[in-house]
Amino acid sequence: MYARKLYNYPGFSSMNPFNEFERLKRQMDALSGTFHQGMPEHRILSAGVFPLLNLTENKDNYYIRAELPGIKAENMGIQIVDKTLTISGERKIPEEGDKITYHRREREAGKFSRAISLPGEIDSDKIEAQMRDGLLIVTIPKAEAAKPKQIAVN
Amino acid sequence: MAETKNLKVKEKHELQNSAEQTKPGLVFTPDVDIFESETDLTLLADMPGVTSDSITIDLNGGILTLTGDVKPWENADEKDVLVEFEIGKYYRQFTLSEIIDQEKIEAKLENGVLRLTLPKAEKARPRQITVTAE
Fold first, then answer.
1. Rg of chain A over CA atoms, in angstroms?
2. What is residue A22's three-state secondary structure?
3. Beta-bridge mates of residue B116
């Protein structure tokens, strides 16, 4: 996974011949200048809806993370219906006064709403969400029945 | 006021054509707004996940460099189910044409957005020149 590359496990890359291929592909793309022009195979399973989400799990919880810089917690809402979680809100960029001239304006304001279906049964009463440094982290406990159980072999 | 539009997905831009990094990992360029008033130049940069102790702002010879590190945010026992975005460092450089009063630079990081106020040096501020007729 791409997120893993940040920590670059040594020894792992040499074991995987596809990493070498991926590297070559990136270089080719960079050369032809098409790297960022929405190559569908580069983005794995993106729903194309803001915000992009990463979903992970461990034995007790699902975790949903999203990058939402500049969005205050009070301008955001999270809803759960059955196994579908909806994250919605609005990003506001305040006016900076009239006596200014912009050199660059890349940051965007607007509304968003994104739904994601969780792959397993969950305990919807104990969902927790927090915003930290522009990151949203939603912790969704798995339902007791969906947690893995150790079965002792006699 | 105009109707609020819906936010669209924007790919994070991976840094291209710069010197090689000493540490491995992905590097992204943050989205910025830069605007100017008579007295200041203000820069706003979206750097989600960056904390005040992991950000470096450097102004040297008219070149402003922003670097932000993102700490690993997953617990070791988590497995990926769906990965739509990648995380990495942030890096961006700007050449400033104005003369900046280095002593008075202010930086604030709030909700993953950096706000950098660069006050213009006294001599770089616009002055009204009155033309006097003889």
1. 20
2. helix
3. B43, B107
Q: Is residue B48 classed exposed, middle or buried when 0-12, 13-18 and 19+ CB atoms within 10 A define those classes? A: buried
Q: Which residue type sits at A108?
A: E
CB contact under 8 A, A111 and B7: yes
Report whether A67 contacts A51 (CB < 8 A).
yes
pLDDT tens for each residue of A86-141: 999 999 888 888 888 999 899 999 999 999 999 989 998 999 999 999 999 999 99
Chain B: residue whose CA lies nearest to A99: B37
Full-model pTM: 0.73
Mark yes or no for CB contact A51/B38 under 8 Å: no
End-to-end CA distance of chain B, in Å? 50
ipTM of this complex prediction, to 2 decimal places: 0.78
Instruction: Report the length, in residues, of chain B.
Output: 134
Q: What is the CA radius of gyration of chain B?
A: 19
